[in-house]
Amino acid sequence: MEANSNKLPRRDYLKLVAAGVLSGVSVPWFERFATAAVQKSRGKACILLWMDGGPSQQHTFDPKPNGEFKSASTTVPGIQIVEQLPQLAACMDDMAIVRSMTTEINGHYDAKYFLHTGYKRNTAFEHPAIGCIASSQIGLARHDMPAFVTIDAGFDRDDGGRLYRSVPAYLGAEHAPLAVHEPTQGLENLAPTGDDLAARLQLLAASERRFAERYPQPAVNTKQAAFDRAVTLMQSKRSKAFRLDEEPQKLRDAYGTHKFGQSCLLARRLVEAGVMFVEVVHRGWDDHNGAAKPISARAPWMDAGLATLIRDLKQRGMLDDTLVVWMGEFGRTPGDGNGHFCRAWSSVFAGGGLKTGQAIGKTSETGKNPGNDIVDRPVTAPDFMATLCLALGIDTHREFLAPGLRPMPLVEKTAKPIKELLG
Amino acid sequence: MVIAHRTCCRAMIWVAALCAAITTVQAEEPTLEHDVLPILTKHCLGCHGGLRQFGKLDMRTLPAMFAGGEGGPAIEKGNSEKSLLWKRIAADEMPEGDDREKLSPREKAVIKAWIDAGLPTVSVRQARIDPLLPADAKHDPSEVAAAIDRHVNDFLAAAKLSPAELSDDQEFLRRLYLDLTGCVPTAEQATAYLNDQDPHKRAKLIDALLASPRFGEQFGRTWRDWASPAELPSDDNAGTQPHQQANEFGQWLGKKVAAGEPWDRIAREILTVQGEFKSQPQVIFFGLAGIGGKTSADGSARAVASLFMGVQLQCAQCHDDPYRAWSQQEHWSLAAFFGRMQGDFSKIENGKGPAPAPGKIEIPSTAFKRAGTSVPASFLGGQVLTDVKDDELRPRFADWLVAKDNSYFSRAFANRLWFYFFARGIVNPIDDLRELNPPSHPGLLQLLANEFAASNYDVKHLVRCICLSQAYQRSSYLPVDVKEETRQALTIAFGRMPLRMMTADMLLDSFKLAYGEEKEFDLRSAGKDSTTGMAATVQNAYLEFRRKFSANEEDATDFTHGVSQMLTLINHPRLLAGSKTLDAQLKSKPETTPEEAIDWLYLSTLSRRPTAQETAESLAFVKQSQDSQTGYRGLLWTLVNRSEFILIR
What we know:
The complex is a heterodimer of chains A (423) and B (649).
Chain A (H helix, E strand, L loop, with lengths): L9 H12 L23 E8 L18 E3 L6 E3 L3 H4 L5 E7 L6 H10 L12 H9 L9 E8 L22 E3 L16 H18 L3 H18 L13 H7 L3 H14 L4 E7 L8 H24 L6 E6 L3 E2 L7 E2 L3 E7 L6 E3 L1 E2 L10 E3 L4 H11 L7 E4 L3 E4 L9 H4 L1
Parallel strand pairs in A: 1-7, 1-8, 4-12, 5-6, 5-7
Antiparallel strand pairs in A: 2-3, 4-11, 8-11, 9-10, 13-14, 15-16
Helix pairs in contact in A: 3-10, 8-9
Chain B lengths: L5 H18 L8 H12 L18 H6 L16 H7 L14 H12 L5 H5 L14 H18 L10 H13 L5 H9 L5 H11 L1 H15 L15 H16 L4 H9 L3 E2 L7 H5 L8 H13 L18 H8 L5 E3 L3 E4 L9 E3 L11 E3 L16 H10 L4 H16 L19 H13 L4 H10 L1 H4 L10 H9 L7 E2 L2 H12 L25 H9 L13 H9 L8 H9 L5 H12 L6 H13 L3 H13 L2 H4 E2 L1
């Protein structure tokens, strides 16, 4: 089937028309926000490992004296993480821990929304998710692989509030993610059904060509372009990236047999094939009955999955161009981790050409509740989003029109990116 | 700035293209609404609007500009040289600051010409509108249809646009079935209609479909979707989503409309509901508009304003609307009517809400302006309600809303209904009815609103009037040499029917029909568990299907499906497994020829017979298939994968 490459997709056409009316670049009622310290010209890929429900920081990357988990040294002198994560301790050179996340929202859904979009949820309109932002800003044009894929790594408790779904909002429907529901089975409906696909496509192509000639319209062009992209993906050699069984068993075992490890491996394969943003979601970190026991159980597969991913990327020379992020929507209350805790929690960056081998920010070590407060370098959700975007080479200034004629920058203008990380 | 949001694009396009259409009519002078306000919105209203009023100047409306700010009136009629607005922009003093973009020469010329022409406005011109039929009586539908066409045709003539031809029978048949019943016709229904020689068969079909219960089902689903947010964020109730309740609400609404209940009565039943969901599904209306599984006064006000009054108040929740003359006060004085009710997904009770006393509400701390201010209940732009009891609040509001002299109610419905059929309203966005956002066809909107009120808010009557019009019955086909600008202008002028996308429900029901598969496509029945899906909290397959195949609610001409949807259509095994109905037919009538089977497949999907070329291609395809069964299955697959299947011509 022919692609309508000479016709502008409808949305682009609309953009052009609309731009004629609102042609300005500056938006007078919002102060131009100061040029951010760091700008990179080239986009990098990103693998976001989302620990849904809110993982406990003191049971992972910000251990406390007299905490439930013991600390262990890492390859970076002075940085300690819990002893349950030995493989990650050996990767510390390639990781940076942000221990001073502070994000104001203790409710699951609103926090997930905030950390995925960099904006607080409101009732008037939705904001685009980071994966969709990446798709629209650094996605490879006319590539046969999708720009943004989500992978469901399963759950170990059915809790943690409603799942956040990445929506492109005002960036356009084509930036919605392609979802893998089961990492070991790849992408649903990717393989052709029946053995007469070629004949069917040929019959269809003839009638589609006639229809497009008769109705040279944006909706028809968009439909046929989407169809072509789907067929291209089905027939592309690169789409084998969705198949884990092509990986050597030894490496698959190293990633861990848990769905999370397999998802990490799939994410690496996808990035290798040209996908720019992969979000792996593992649900069930909402540990209201104490974080120690469940995290003891999760630590081995999380350790294996993330550490193997970092090592594997490095070995393939991909680590500098692939940013790995590990996080949830908030942390957990100091001590046993029973409750939600947004005041001071941890996220982890790895690779992506960032200045790794450091810990950013610090939480209190002493007092009644060690870890209860940030003593150094608070990082808000917009700060975090700006850092992530800049690391991927995304221009955070760019503005898009949200409903109600609101010009929205990709990242809130008050954001202060973590310069220590961006170098 | 990158312009990306579709609604805005539509709004901007509307301004741009309509200006083009209208300037051909009144080329001599710019108007406030079409020419000047877009410029003011871009350059001025951010600092001199609802959000900020630097120099105490508000430029959102003409009276406000006359009132002026610290420097005196901003404008002087007919005299740009004496107008402060012109002086400041001509000297590039405004917008203030070196880093701000100044007005372009063209923009300046528009402002100057507008002031010198005596500040012309569309609304003044439209004050003299003639709806063509008297307002005080219900008319015969064909009479109304003729008046609709005069409005549309006058506009087209003035804009020197030649409309598309009248649709042919196939096009009309499929469009009407999908619009009124949410599903394509069966092959038998299509054949019967196409063979019918009665010159009045279009009117007959409209009547027949309006009388079927499926009309109510489709209408109810449409309103369910309009009343439901895509996802209802709620942590407080463990992520429970009231989708099932929303479905029941849609069914309830649909049954009422199918039974001919007038819209004002239905609206009143929704607005004044109290008690349990079990016996009154409309209880969920307020839950859907609420937050965290609970009703909220301002959410209720927003939903009621948008759906029943055609007015957008969402910005005014937290601050005065920067661009529209809605104040935060107006938003909260409407919210005050809903301030003493409280409820969730299962019930609504009066006298328990957060408001301190009936008819009063406090602006909550989440608003970033005037938090804590107490606001009395008052009708939009009308009088304050005093001395009112808890149980009277919402009934008093409903009385005001559905009163025949309240044009918000009938205009909002008429505009929304028109939008449903034409994928754009007479006013756009469809819930932004206000003086400075004038209708493209003011007489038409007035006509429809009058007729709706005069018919005692008879939904079917208004649907019948619109569907009988030539405007609705025009083809979506335009000769290939018609330029894209003209196509756009014709769409805006309602001189052609745009291609619209099937909704998820239309797609589901049309699959069900073509494949003769009740079981596998029966996603609506309760208890269908999700087989895939990222969320354990997704609950059901129907929801998943709707989420996946949803169209753009704001613009049905926008094709929203991408690779994910296409992969399902291409490779889902059921879509290649053939039609049970056809299989049964072939079994009971073995003498069926391949041509007959091919005809049946075309009629069941595209609601037309194949052309000679298509028959030849299909025959060749079936012949080269390993057997005729496989051939028919493959052919059905190509038909449902066609653009012509998912796009309504």
